[in-house]
């Protein structure tokens, strides 16, 4: 901000007093100002901010920063075409599952049977873990979807000791009443098998599992995701799954069986194949994979919105 121009001097401005007198006058004014400032808690020697700045003088001790009254609110999603939509992204496995084998081997009810709470996932021959790959892709996709206005929630963000278990992963999407949920994985098929595929829920009605209401929208989500992922990554559907269609339907995955919202699994490639592994260990390719996830979800939600309008 530019300073305001100085006002013109008064006519017949008197001559300035001697320097000694000016110093005495300045001191007479400064003392009460300092006393007043200290009483208000804004001492010149120690005005600290939230970042802990300030010199730590007596005035800073006398007037600590006010305590926070609650958590800092999260920024609202950006306005965009997905505004008002809730997307749940599920990074498959957990980097620390390997340290908690007893906990992740615990059996949980998936409706039509019992499965392990979670597994360690696969890895490349060079040791790059699936769990690190999925977490990176999901974080990138979250940023892209938020930029389009969606509210994005993760089942975990690398902030848990292990898991969560497959039943809790499904429940997170259910409680969020997600418009779409995608679980991101990488496959561990034999070397030579290449490509991605999308797994969709079969119609399961057993125990606490009932996917009958979500099979059709999940299939639509899966086909949109497969198309967008192929385009964004310039890769092809897996030749070793369901005749090379890139689409598979399963009834044995707890994360799908227990979902009450449209949900699919995305196997981004085969970590045991050297060429697929070379892609997945590239940060640039993981960004492309995230774009495919975001574009597929956006295409599904746009179609869903059009059908309801």
Short structural summary:
The protein is 37% helix and 15% strand.
Question: Could you characterize the architecture of this molecule?
Answer:
- By secondary structure, this protein is an alpha/beta fold.
- The protein is built from 9 helices and 10 strands.
- The strands form 3 sheets. A 6-stranded mixed beta sheet has the order 4-1-5-10-6-9, sandwiched between helices. Strands 2-3 form a two-stranded antiparallel sheet. A two-stranded antiparallel ribbon has the order 7-8.
- α4 (130-147) packs across α9 and α6 (215-233) packs across α9 (283-308).
- The two termini are 49 Å apart.
Shape type: globular
The biggest beta sheet is recorded as: 6 strands, mixed
State the end-to-end CA separation. Answer: 49 Å
Number of helices: 9
Helix content: 25-40%
Low-confidence stretches: 1-74
| Strands side by side in the biggest sheet | 4-1-5-10-6-9
The amount of beta strand, in percent, is: 5-15%
Number of E-state strands: 10
* Overall pLDDT: 82
Radius of gyration: 30 Å
Structural class based on helices, strands and sheet pairing: alpha/beta
Secondary-structure element order, N to C? HHEHEEHEHEEEEHEHEHH
List keywords for this structure.
309 residues; alpha/beta; two-stranded antiparallel sheet; 37% helix; disordered N terminus
Secondary structure layout:
Blueprint: H1 19-39, H2 58-62, E1 86-91, H3 101-104, E2 107-109, E3 114-116, H4 130-147, E4 151-154, H5 166-175, E5 180-187, E6 197-201, E7 205-206, E8 209-210, H6 215-233, E9 247-250, H7 254-257, E10 263-270, H8 274-280, H9 283-308
Parallel strand pairs: 1-4, 1-5, 5-10, 6-9
Antiparallel strand pairs: 2-3, 6-10, 7-8
Helix pairs in contact: 4-9, 6-9
